[in-house]
Fold PHP domain-containing protein.
Amino acid sequence: MFKRYELHNHTSESDGNISVSELINYMVEENVDGVAITDHNTISGHDKAFKVIRENNINIDLIYGVELTTYYGHILCLNLQEYINWENINKNKPEIIFKQIRDKGGLVGIAHPFSKGYPYAKGCRWEMKINDYSMIDFIEIFNNPEPIEVNEKALELWEELVLDGYKISMTTGMDLHGRASMENCFRTYIKVNEKEFSKDELYMAIKNGQTFITKENILEAYINQKANSYYISFNFHENNKKLISTEYILEIKRKGQKIITKYTKGLIIELKHGINKGDSIIVKLYEKEVNINNLLAIAPVIYVN
């Protein structure tokens, strides 16, 4: 079972033009399974959201969060029920505030890292010096309102860090400030056990690098070892659009190696070069050709144990 989460949303509690109640109802209309309230520098919408869901018996997961809108970049916090004061943040030592967020049970994320900053929108672009990337839980690789070339840089940053060995999840965000079309936008999913689902599932999926990014169909990739060889197999979960194998391309990437191949049902790929414990493998699905404009889905990172 897969659940879809919208993890970056604003309401009239900060600079949005949609109330908390309207946002939640909109998410229900869009068949979203979980919604994060991430207003700028306030958690005032948390209790209101909880009340709306409880009083109307709405079946949606509520994720408490906040977007800390600093002068040097926006820190997207999930699973955080307390406000963190960032006014004295040191842009050369952001790990201090990252630790405060984690100590409160929160997840630390970088929102739209390559957004236009000064003089267009001071603080939107990430300008902090990160000394320890292990303190980052996720990067918003697709902020859907941003131009594709801006998001491509975020994707490349995430890939570089993952292939260097960091366990950092990928997420997407509508960055809603009101109603907006979600058609053809990237979405975040997690895989859950239908019988044993708990509120910790999203937290653990992000912590373990097990998020799915897609526009339509969900892509999974598995690695198996036989003797001294490793093999990757694939699985597609169709939401609304059926896959036509001759039109889809897989890219398998690890440190020092890239494989590009057409997808065919039952495809298994042998990794012929040496695989080491601790290696990370990224698998992406494209339509017709490997181009950011043709990207359809990214599977959770394969970590070789």
Observations:
- The chain has five helices and 17 strands.
